Amino acid sequence: MSGNPGSSSSLFTVETPTVKTTLSSVLPCLLVLASLAGCEQAKSHAHKKVEHAEKVFQGEYPIKILCTTGQVAEMLARVGGDKVHVETLMGPGIDPHLYRPTASDVEKLVNSDAIFYSGLHLEGRMADKLVQLARKKATYAVTEGIVSRQDKRLREPPEFEGLHDPHVWHDVALWAECAHDVAAMLGNLDPEHATLYDNNSHTYMGELAELHEYCKSEIAKIPASQRVLVTAHDAFGYFSAAYGIEVAAMKGISSEEEKDIQHQDSIQALLIERKIPAVFVESTIAHRTVDSLIETCKAAGWDVVNGGELYADALGESGSSASNYTGMIRHNVQTIVEALSR
Question: Which residue, 215, 233, 248, sits at the end of a domain?
Fold first, then answer.
């Protein structure tokens, strides 16, 4: 694989900004925080095109970019290179579906030159406000392009009431297309370096193409009858479609949804009938839901085990094998293959 995907983690950091006590700096933060605090998961069910403020960067480099998740931050760091300084709102173990910004986070939103977020309502409690911010400053959802092109790989599960499944990064090829779109977004923001961003995106996309093929070949090693991935919430639908593995989840696409007892019974029956050897916990969700499933299976006579922890919504801790996007995907694949091939 060309380059070193793991090295990108050093290009973006979460910093605690110095608190300014002047009224001019505090007031905008308070106003934004008040509006974000009242923002729950978006109620609109239409796939609306985001309206952008026409902004061209005219400040000093590097461009200060604020990203919501680690996956997005890595993409911006790789595509933007030394022309950008990237910070992340949500660190390891943070559930983006439930995230509420702190006062220091709001100051970062106000002071950044540009904001990039995942989109498709992943950032459920910030979604509407991020769309509103796009009318005032350079704010982009990295998934805008695949939505506007009506990419056929986008999932729109019935239970999500007209919205797309936001977990697109689990299809590496689809995420790579978002990287190309990000290059165009940065090029519009900073036309002077548009060619650099485009070149960087193609380098990154080449690495992701190799990762995509790795995922396909590894998942194919699992015996076909055992190729069933059971997790805490429905984050792996894109992974399923891209790599040929069935998925079943205790909760829906949003981790806020409660598990349904009847649904748990059907998953238990699936595990026993198909003799699936393992189920999986997630790094951002309490393990008790999956632990309960394991206990009921054992009580029914099937000794299913905890196959390990997967990274569904967030990267791993710094220094771990899942601290960058490539590492996260490889960790998940290796964990799944090892546990389901028993």
Answer: 215
